[in-house]
Amino acid sequence: MPCLNWRKENTPQRPKERRQCTHRESLAQFLAHNTVLSAGGTKMKTTHLCSQVGVTNTETELQLSVLLDQFSITAAKKVYLLEADTALSPEETAMEGVGQPAKMKCLEGPHLNQGPAKSCGSLAPEKELVSASQLEEEEENEGEEDLDPDPDLAPGPEEEEEEEDEKDLGDPAVLSAVHNTQRGGLSSPGIKIPDVLGMSPTSLHFLWQTLDYLSPVLFRPKFPSANSPACHFGHQLLLPDPSLFCSLPTSWPPKFSLPSHLTQLHPQHQRLLQLQQHSRMQSPPAKKPWSQQPDPYANLMTRKEKDWVIKVQMVQLQSENPRLDDYYYQKYYQKLEKKQADDELLGRKNKVESLKLVTPYIQKAEAYESVVRIEGSLGQVAVSTCFSPRRAIDAVPHGTQEQEAGAASSQRLRVLHHIEKMFLQLLEIEEGQKDGPPQPCYSEQQSKQVEKLFLALKTQEQNNLEEAADGFLQVLSVRKGKALVARMLPFLPQNQAVSLLLAITHHLPLLVRRDVADQALQMLFKPLGRCISHLTFHELLQGLQGLTLLAPGSSERPVTVVLQNQFGISLLYALLSHGEQLVSLDSSLEKSNSDYTTWTDMVVLIAWEIAQMPTASLAEPLTFPSNLLPLFCHHVDKQLVQQLEARMELAWIY
Amino acid sequence: MLFYSFFKSLVGKDVVVELKNDLSCHTGKRRVDMDSCCRIAICGTLHSVDQYLNIKLTDISVTDPEKYPHMLSVKNCFIRGSVVRYVQLPADEVDTQLLQDAARKEALQQKQ
């Protein structure tokens, strides 16, 4: 145990001896006292101990008893007692102490201010530190006024520090312990002395060593040493300023059942949680029998200590770029907030003013390489962090995946790959479009991006127009592709959106057939509907023509298939409704040309098809425009209208 | 950090955590009728989560109390992330589209 050896070498004799004796006495007293208190402790044992220690002084008994509370609570039931005789020299005791569990080890080193705490782990033995520091306070209290920093001890830790991994964060436990003592209190009064196993004399010696090695004063918190590859978390752990400690008392789980006050929650999230808690608190919580008994293990750590521990963890989580690192959480609550704001606009009351979320911003000290290459080593030394738990090999795909044989699966893979690439572009565009509903962008850069995306969608490296359309259809055959197009449509300028719409309507039966499994075409309806409302009459006719024309080689029109599909029928109705709107608004259209005749013909045809269709197979549209029936009334005879009415209203009973 | 972010958004919601060591914890309210063939599921309200996906649950209940009587008195627990097998989530609290986008962004970041 390196720290032990160091201690032995550097322990000065003179100034310590005095303290040594006093401590030995006090400790012995305390141990004796404790042994008596423990179940099964006998007077014999006490005297045995006392005689071995050579202690007669009983002044500091109480102090020590309190101290050992702290100590034994943590080490209680885990104290590995050494069965050695008292004749062991301190050195041997120290060596045996090596075999002791980590908790015991920690007590030895004055890592409170200097020593390496590696063996103890970083944060666990705070309690030991408290007790150790309190033992130190005891030294002070006993009247040792000359608390000079031990010169011999000072240079020692410097060397040790460098070698060891820096986990020493200048324990606030110690600092708070100092504060505690300064306030005059020794310890919390409420601690009961628990059952402690009797301590053997060797452990007594062991504890003496501890006290001996405790250096009196000067808590010099060490700043973390320079980066070491073994640094697990990849950040420089900052020394938290004690003044930063929050003094809000909360316990876990607190009555509010909020996570620690140090966690940064989105204000929306905070509001939701508080609402939850209020609703839960209103129902009186059932009293459990165990909650009324005083907990002997409570309040071992002060609020400051707990906060410090939490802060250490939180520091690692601070990032320079919360939008990226914390993408899901931020976006989720932004959406929720937006939804609530919309609801509020519609009439629902907004309860609380939205707070400004302040995210603490801590500079990442330095980027580090998670894969460490040591000269002369075979391969890589994997360093795992919380961001990349294990990167043992360089798993980077090399080369392109484009050269595939024309197998069906590879074709599908190609389509999927293509969709993913477009998705990344789409995400970029959406990022650029801050807030507000997606709309055709006005900034140059965004328009370029959109253009690029559209070209990627439409052309797909095909020369032939038909094949290009085919590529587009392939994209649409996949659920992901439909989602992509649906999200992309609002960003497109009208002419491009129209071209997509026309492509869809022309191949609607095919799409419908391919969508049987997914039933995902619905997501296209809303953006397409918006596009339809901006259609010109001519474009509209073009769209409808595709549906009414007889496909070569089949006896039925596409309309029939379309009518049986929900998306198809909704789209059709939307188109018809828009046409009717255009016609009714602009009377000049009626007088003109062939367009209007085509329009009338189509309406009649569609009406006839609907009438032909058995009611059962008519799909239910997503929306039913109100001007459809009047439209049919204009162009179709009464009998047919009645039939239509019956069909339409029967199919969708509101 | 994707799943840390994801679970953060679920803080305060009821989840069921199934453990690898055949221990399931159920949260107090919902009695899930599961075919619990010696698999422990802990149901509880997600109190907090950390970057290792350690989970703190409050107000828990275990699927099969008679099988695991030692859990009867436990109200809150801390579950180490590495021991979790499944976490059952409320479907309406999850935005799958956003999750997909977050995954894409994460993949992009990793490539860089």
Describe it for me?
Chain B: Keywords: mRNA processing, mRNA splicing, Nucleus, Ribonucleoprotein, RNA-binding, Spliceosome. Chain B: One of its GO terms (molecular function) is RNA binding. The complex is a heterodimer of chains A (654) and B (112). Chain A contains 28 helices and 2 strands. Chain A is mainly α and 654 residues long. In chain A, a hairpin with an 8-residue loop joins strand 1 and strand 2. In chain A, helix 5 crosses helix 10, helix 21 packs parallel to helix 24 and helix 22 runs antiparallel to helix 24. Chain B is α+β, with helices and mostly antiparallel strands and 112 residues long. Chain B is built from 2 helices and 6 strands. In chain B, strands 1, 2, 3, 4, 5 and 6 form a 6-stranded antiparallel beta sheet that branches. The interface between A and B is medium-sized, with 35 and 32 residues.
Key features of this structure:
heterodimer; A: 654 residues; mainly alpha; 2 strands; B: 112 residues; alpha+beta; 6 strands; 32% strand; small GTPase binding (chain B)
The whole-angstrom Rg of chain B is 15 Å
Largest sheet of chain B: 6 strands, antiparallel
Give the integer mean of the pLDDT values of chain B. 83
Distance between the termini of chain B: 15 Å
Silhouette of chain A: elongated
Number of strands of chain B: 6
The rounded Rg of chain A comes to: 39 Å
As an assembly, this protein is heterodimer
The helix-and-strand class of chain B reads alpha+beta
Roughly what fraction of the amino acids of chain B lie in strands? 25-35%
* Helicity level of chain A: 40-55%
Quickly count the helices of chain A. 28
* Derived structural class of chain A: mainly alpha
Spatial gap, N to C terminus of chain A? 81 Å
Q: What is the residue-averaged pLDDT of chain A? A: 63
* Total count of helical runs of at least 4 residues of chain B: 2
InterPro entries (chain B): LSM_dom_sf, Sm, Sm_dom_euk/arc, U6_snRNA_Lsm2
Family (chain B): Belongs to the snRNP Sm proteins family.
GO molecular function, one term (chain B): RNA binding
Keywords (chain B): mRNA processing, mRNA splicing, Nucleus, Ribonucleoprotein, RNA-binding, Spliceosome
